[in-house]
Amino acid sequence: xxxxxxxxxxxxxxxxxxxGGIGSAIARAFAEVGANLALLDINEKGxxxxxxxxxxxxxxxVAVSTAVADLSTERGVKSGIEEALSPFSSRIDILAANxxxxxxxxxxxxxxxxxxRGFALNFFTHIYACxxxxxxxxxxxxxxxxxxxxxxxxxxxxGLGPYAQAKAALHSLVKMxxxxxxxxxxxxxxxxxxxxxxxLVETLMxxxxxxxxxxxxxxxxxxxxxxxxSLGRLGEPEEVAEAVLYLATAAFCNGTILNISGGxxxxxxx
Length: 270
Fold this sequence. Notes:
By secondary structure, this protein is of the alpha/beta class. 47% of the residues lie in helices and 14% in strands. It folds into 2 domains: 5-196 and 236-260, NAD(P)-binding Rossmann-like Domain (Rossmann fold, 3-Layer(aba) Sandwich), CATH 3.40.50; 197-234.
C-alpha cells in the first residue's frame, strides 16, 4: 500500500471506540504521522491511559483530546463528538468509526435485547457519528469516513448473529453514503478485518476454549482451521490501523470494503 501520509499532518481524526485494541492502534498510527486526535470511548481508564501514552510520545505539533461517552446512544455519541472536537473548533477531517461489540450465541439462544444491543453498538452508533460529523465536513468542503467493518459482514459464521448482521448493514451503509456524499467532497469506505488479536477476540477465544475443552492458544488454532483462514494466524491491530491509514490517503477509494481477513473471505465479489 503506497501512502502519502504527509497530507495527514495537522489533520483532525475523530476515533470512536478509541480505547479498544484496534482503536488504540489507529490512534497510535495517526499520531505517528502527525495527525491531531479526538478520542472517544466509554472506558474512562483505558482512554486516559491511551491519551497519556500518546502525549508522552507525540511530536509537539500533535494535539490529543478525549471524551468519555456512551457510544450506544444517540445522545452519548453526539455529545461525545462535540466535546472531543471542541479543542479543534469543531474541525474534523477524518472519522474512524470503530465501535464494536461481540455477542457469540446461536440464533435460538439470542434474546431480543441481545439483538438490539448488538445493532446499537455495531450499527446505530455509526449512524449517530455520521449524523454528527457530516455537516461539519460539509462546512469544511470535504473529509473522509472510514468504518471498521468485519469479514463477518462479508462471510458470516454460525453463532455470531447480531455482530455479523450488523456489520453487513454497516457495509451497506458504506455503499449508500459513498453514492450520496462525493459531491460534498466526502469519501466513505471501510476496513473489514478478520479475527484480530484484540480483547474482544480474546474473550471469544476463551469461549471456544471452554467449548473445545482446550487452552485458549489451542482453541485459537482450531478455530482458524475451522474457518479455513489460509494464513493460519490472527491479524494484528497494527495491520488494521495501516489499512485505515491507506484509506485515509487513497483519493480514488470510495465505497471500498477493504478485506483484510487473512484469507477467510473467499468470495470473488464482496
